Amino acid sequence: MHVVEQFAHFAVASRAQPIAPQVAHHARRAVIDWFAALLPGAVDAPATLLEAALAEEFGVGNARLTLGRAAPARLAALINGTAAHTAELDDIFRDGIYHPGAPTIAAALALAQSTGATGQALLRAIIVGYEISTRIGAAMGREHYRYFHNTGTIGCFGAAAACAELLGLDETRFAHALATVATFSAALQQAFRMDSHSKPMHAGRAAEAGVTAALAAREGVKGSLDVLEGDAGYGRALTHGNAGPDWSRIAATLGQDFHITRMTFKNHACCGHSFAAIDGALAAQAALKVAASEIAQVSIGGYRATVEVAGIAQPRTAPEARFSTQFTVATALTHGSVRLDAFSPARLADAATRDLMHRVTLAIDPELDAAFPRQRAARVVMQTRDGRRHEHLQPTRKGDPDLPLTDAELEAKFRELAVPVLGEARSAALLADLWRVDSLPDLKGLTGRMA
Questions:
Q1: What is the pLDDT of residue 8?
Q2: Sign (positive/negative) of CA torsion 211, 215, 217, 221?
Q3: pTM greater than 0.90 (yes/no)
Q4: Among 1.20.58.110, 3.30.1330.120, 3.30.710.10, 3.10.490.10, what is the CATH number of 272-394?
Q5: CA distance 283 to 9
Q6: d(CA 28, CA 120)
């Protein structure tokens, strides 16, 4: 079978199997984390600008935007997917260098609301979308990530697979949905190397593409079934024309090893490539017991993406600051954390943070870079003004599968991000619904209660 047919076979065959309790629990955690990331992004650009730009498309449809506005499924997927990736707080599949939640859950929820699906059907669809797309992301590897933004490219497959599952497509139509969405795949890293609204729209566009491909396949639209492994296919084209990924064992652990149980949930409101450096710098500061003003120099060795993707040296705006390890480390050392308020105008201009930022240097550490993407580490050397020195190796990031957020910490993250948008009562009610999402007979209330 072609790769897309192997994935389709897995999805259809798994319908006869119950969802394991542990897998269901982790899927609920993913939905909670998605809403936590979604809410602050829903009241910010570019989601608010998209809503204005596409105003004439509202007025029909049974899907919902974050705050309850009715919309067609494709429009809701686009705007909610964009919102979920805006604040840089959405989940990560480490091995695939990929944020699966923003596109996959946005597409699945929009189509589930549009078709009247149950919460159980939604959760199963999300699991299928994560399992298929994370394997494609891992297979494409860091060669793909060199120029492309995986959340936009790989996210198309997560969204299409989840939607194909919700529609109950047979193996043939399911495979064609994946084959078709491959040709919709797009997202360039250059789009976020300077101030831009493009990056979150990658996730939204992937979500919209997934809905489109699945609906088209339901009606009989066909794709090229060898689109991933073919000589001129996705694998070779999007890894710069080399031999491409080894697809031979792409489905080997499907249905046995569930990647959704190994998500990274973000503990800082910025690019994940900065996280190990932030965690390591805070550990070094604690070891030295110094205030930010007493720090003379912070030298950070990391993997290549920390320098090339998250190394904007002189950030001027919030989007640029989220991709500046120099700024995020400095603000963490000065203020104790990197939360949403770190990117407010006052904090962006904070003199103490800016002063320390100029004393934070980045360099590629060959040993740490060789371990990427399976390990996201940083080596931090901190020197104080009185001549003391401390070196700290941060082997992983808080929130990674080997140092996960607990359920209580995930709930705290949700409340921190939801309450400013919804208030205490609505946030608590939504969180309760999310923990039992697979028992809900109807899903419109997940967003409708926010109106």
A1: 98
A2: negative
A3: yes
A4: 3.30.1330.120
A5: 47
A6: 11
